[in-house]
């Protein structure tokens, strides 16, 4: 079998590339085409978690419907009850001495 | 209400979507060996300026119910325990307990 000279093979390959409209890349350089070819993954990524309705926002958007956020009402009620029992959040420190007293170890 | 890890993951997902096109363009330039090294280096520097919430590898499929990061079935977006609870409750159409 007679061997084909490499120059001729190269010409055949370049001709084939021009016919089938592919990129002639004899040195097999990386062209980065895969980053353009790949599908965009963002749209499906965003859809992973089911959409949740922001209740507070909905109430603010439609004040005429007079809806009530039960969880928020309950939370405020709990805070009030705790305050009555003396278990509320401590007062904000007014100066450095106050803040030192608050962080002091007992 | 989703926990902080889920909220962070949602943030990452939104970041990936908004920055994806630009990042792809820079990736194409930076990984393209037919371009000059200076141009490729500049593109790589630009890629480094994106925050961590622009990278798709930051995104992790977490449980939509409990926020758990391990043992999550991506098809249902649920961890194994929440999956069991919902399946037994009949909330997942087509899923039923095997018995033979």
UniProtKB/TrEMBL annotation, chain A:
Residues 95-106 have a biased composition (Basic and acidic residues). The keyword Cell inner membrane does not apply. GO terms for cellular component: mitochondrion; ribonucleoprotein complex; ribosome. Keywords: Mitochondrion, Ribonucleoprotein, Ribosomal protein. It comes from the Eukaryota. Residues 76-106 are annotated as: Disordered. Residues 84-94 have a biased composition (Basic residues). It is found in: Mitochondrion. InterPro entries: Ribosomal_mS33. Its main location: mitochondrion. Belongs to the mitochondrion-specific ribosomal protein mS33 family. This is Small ribosomal subunit protein mS33. The lineage of its organism: Eukaryota, Fungi, Dikarya, Basidiomycota, Agaricomycotina.
Automatic annotation (TrEMBL), chain B:
Gene3D superfamilies: 1.10.287.1480. The keyword Ribonucleoprotein applies. One of its GO terms (molecular function) is structural constituent of ribosome. One of its GO terms (cellular component) is mitochondrial small ribosomal subunit. The keyword DNA repair does not apply. It comes from Serpula lacrymans var. lacrymans (strain S7.3). Pfam families: Ribosomal_S14 (PF00253). Belongs to the universal ribosomal protein uS14 family. GO terms for biological process: translation. This is Glucocorticoid receptor-like (DNA-binding domain). Keywords: Ribonucleoprotein, Ribosomal protein. InterPro entries: Ribosomal_uS14 (IPR001209), Ribosomal_uS14_CS (IPR018271).
